[in-house]
Every structure is written in C-alpha cells, then in structure tokens.
Design a protein that fits this description.
With 298 residues, this protein is an alpha/beta fold. The protein folds into two domains: 101 residues, no CATH class; 164 residues, P-loop containing nucleotide triphosphate hydrolases (Rossmann fold, 3-Layer(aba) Sandwich), CATH 3.40.50.300. The chain is built from 15 helices and five strands. Strands 2-3-4-1-5 form a five-stranded parallel beta sheet, with helices on both faces. Helix 12 crosses helix 13.
C-alpha cells in the first residue's frame, strides 16, 4: 500500500485527527474504537438476526466466550451503539439493554442493574418479585427485545443451587418478555450456562479464539493502522518482524494487540517519527501477559 492509498483509506475521523495538536492526537489514538474483523462481524450479524426474529415464547440465546481482554466488551459496545435509545415514534424506545452481571449469582443485584440501566427507581426493601414486575412492565413498554449480560462467569461464585436459581431467573425474563438473552464471559461462561439441560440447550455457544499469526492477523493490523492519525503509512502490517514481535508479546490476545499498537503509535508521534518501528516497540517496554502472570506468582 502506498502512502497515498493509505491516506485515502483512512477513516474520516483519523484523517481529521492528522491536523490535531500532539496532545489531541494522542488522546485520539488512545480513545476506544471498534476494530472490525471476521469473528466480531459474524457475532454482530448473528445478534442482528436474533433481534429481527419474530417474538415467541422460547427465544434463541447466545453465550459468547473467550479469553479475558479478547474483544468481548467492544462487540457489546458496538452492538449497543447500533441500536441506541429512540423517542419511540418510529421504532422501539429501547430495543437493547446491556448490563454487567453482579459479582455472584445474586438475582436481586442483577435486577438492580437492569432497573438502574433503564432509569427506573426502586426501593432497597422491594422484594425480588416486585423488582421483577417493574422490569417486565417497563421493558414491555420500552419495546426491549434483547438483554445483554456481560461477565456472566461471575455467577459461578456461588453454590450450585444459587447458580441454578440465577440462570433460571434470567431464562424466565427471556421467556416472559420474549427477549433474546446474549451473555458474554471468559471460557468458564460455558459452565454458567450449563446449570441444567434446558439452559444449556437455549444458549448457543460462540467462541472468540485467540489470534493466529496468519493473514487475518495481518489484516487486523492493517485495520488498526486506518485508525491512526499518520500522514504516511505507519508500516506496522508491512513490517514482518514488527508484526511478529507484537504477536509474540500480546500472546494473540486482541486487547493486548490493540494496546501495543496504540502505545507504539503514541511513542512514534511523541518522537516525531512518520512511521512505527521496532524502536517504538522497545521503547514502550510493554510487559507481556505471560510476564505479568510470572510477576503475580512471585
């Protein structure tokens, strides 16, 4: 890719950021952005298809699982951004609700999170059934069709009986409101959605795998480059040695790949360099996930 081709392919906001002062350029690089790639696009397409399905008593659900920091939350944020709240005149006011699972299989705390998200007041003295009634009443009025729960693996921090009750409560919301339930978590999320055969059969699993050192990884780096405010091609995806070292340090985990690329880009901008190189990777002194684990065990 030539420098001119790179410039023409830059995201519009990245092209505008080229003219920012250094501090604003750095803030732009470090700001959160959704990076499209095949697996994420596939999950988003699957979620879109679920949202369009006719409402029925047994709505299909998903469990998306993968290593920590491997892009799950960015997928949630992108999907929610695509389905924002509306005034309700031409479409449902709140088609999608996203919440984080509480620190354990605490159904009351989950209900609190949902009510907080939709800005419905409740009393601490409210019973579980009263909170459930509020959720059902208001979500029905808001036209909610999908409930997304992140960090579902948190529900494993409890007894089998509490975990089963928690997941049955989630399933009950889906049944009665005819919602698609999509849960995200680390690999143990599969255990959270396996409390019984009914729950397990309801939640279709989709894995977010670690990246391989292949063409798709090179395409990921090329996509990341288009988010950077450089006048010339940064040279990350075309530098085989640099790309390999980033992969090795990141352990193939998406969040670390993005973090390393962004920190290298910031370092290059601060040094007045027109491209990102091995010097930037050395200078940021990034501690790899394996090194972090080793330090934690000391």
């Amino acid at each position: 890719m030539t420098d001119q081709e790179y410039y023409e392919m830059l995201l519009p906001e990245s092209r505008r950021a080229i003219d920012f002062d250094l501090e604003d350029k750095i803030n732009f690089v470090l700001s959160g952005k959704f990076i499209p790639y095949r697996t994420a696009d596939g999950i988003l397409q699957t979620m879109e298809a679920l949202l369009k399905e006719p409402r029925k008593s047994r709505m299909p659900c998903l469990v998306v699982y993968g290593d920590s920091n491997n892009g799950k939350t960015s997928i949630i944020d992108e999907f929610v951004d695509r389905h924002p709240p509306t005034d309700g005149l031409e479409s449902d006011p709140l088609p999608v609700i996203d919440v984080e699972a509480p620190g354990g299989p605490d159904t009351s705390a989950l209900y609190n999170n949902i009510l907080d998200k939709i800005l419905i007041p409740y009393k601490k003295s409210h019973t579980l059934s009263q909170k459930e009634h509020l959720i059902k009443y208001h979500c029905a009025n808001l036209g909610t069709r999908m409930l997304i729960i992140d960090e579902i693996h948190n529900s494993l921090a409890g007894t089998p009986a509490k975990r089963a009750f928690f997941m049955n409560s989630v399933k009950g919301l889906g049944n009665q409101l005819r919602l698609n339930i999509v849960v995200f978590g680390v690999s143990t999320a599969l255990l959270a959605t396996s409390t019984d055969e009914q729950i397990q059969s309801r939640f279709r699993p989709i894995k977010l795998p670690k990246w391989l050192l292949d063409e798709e990884y090179a395409n990921l780096l090329a996509s990341l480059e288009l988010t950077l405010p450089f006048k010339k091609h940064p040279g990350i995806s075309t530098n085989a040695e640099l790309a390999t070292k980033i992969y090795d340090i990141s352990g193939g985990v998406l969040g670390y790949v993005v973090e390393i690329v962004n920190k290298c880009a910031v370092n290059a901008l601060e040094k007045g360099r027109e491209r990102v190189g091995l010097d930037d990777l050395r200078e940021i002194q990034f501690i790899s996930p394996s090194e972090r684990r080793a330090i934690e065990q000391i």
